[in-house]
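Data availability (excerpt). All sequences and predicted token strings are deposited with the supplementary files. A representative entry, DNA polymerase III subunit delta, is shown inline so that the format can be inspected without opening the archive.
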Amino acid sequence: MIDIFTLNENLKNGKAENCYLLCGSDEKLIKDTVNYIVDMNVDKNFRDLNYEEFDGTFIDSFEPVINACETMPLMSSKKVVLVYRASFLNDDKSGNPKLHGENAFKCIYNYLSDVPDHCILIFYDIFKSKRDKPGKRIYKLDKKICVVRADKIKGYQLESRVKEMFELRGKQIGRVELRIFCSLLKENDLNILENEVEKLCCYVLDEPITKDDIKVLFFKNNYDDIFDLTNPIANKKIKESIQVLNELIYKGEKIPYILNMIEKQFYKLLELKIMLHYKEKKQNIMRELNMRSDYAYEINVAQSKKFTFKQLKNAINLCLTAEERIKSSTIDPKTEMELLIINSIVYEK
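Structure token line:
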């Protein structure tokens, strides 16, 4: 049994099989992989002629699938036959009862040795939860066809894969930088990951990869803009704070939105500081405050340490007062925001 990354690498290197079973909890990842195999083997102009699919939930027998596999491709050297939601290949008895019996499974199992060279037969089975595991039938099939565990990889396994991609390009990346980079990746698709690695390598050229390089390319969003504003406030830098505020307004961010995000960040820092005070575990804190990476946790902890409890409570009260004044008076909203920043900074411990 191989993982989705190994499958993608094999396909890219021309190591293809003519029968696959993809199983896992991530249906989107599986569908993307199936489409990739189809696109590699079937001309899009003749896709309707050389691609057939069957819903494993409803087919009465395996004969239509066999007939599709045996039919020669038209205007192409290959055809692809897909049987999706093929839970009858696992031990889940809630699937298709007409194909789940031992006789039906034996028929399918025996045919897999006879799939013609012109056909690529693909099954996929979606697990009901991430905790589900392949059953005995899938392990039995693994001895005959290529079985692929199609789950998003993470943690050390993901970091190891990504590190290999950098090394193939002659680049070394530090452990901290690698962890930050992987925490920001939104897809586990091999091609997308390689594009992101290539982008970073092209950006740094012959220079070492730094955290700032990664942040410039991949970590700039609205939340980071707000973090960039609360950070100089924490460091008591009035001029820099006002400058970041002006940049946000120039970029088109509305003042009520900026105020709301600042308030949320101060609330988050206060909650974080309280949880740290009571020695809550890191994983509990990340889950409660919706921090999706170790890097996000570390930078928020560092920022929270620059405020006292009183300073954070005062900053939140200042946000609430500013919000009320902006809504109920004719005061210039930008001036009110500047006063909020100044008062947050000059407040005594």
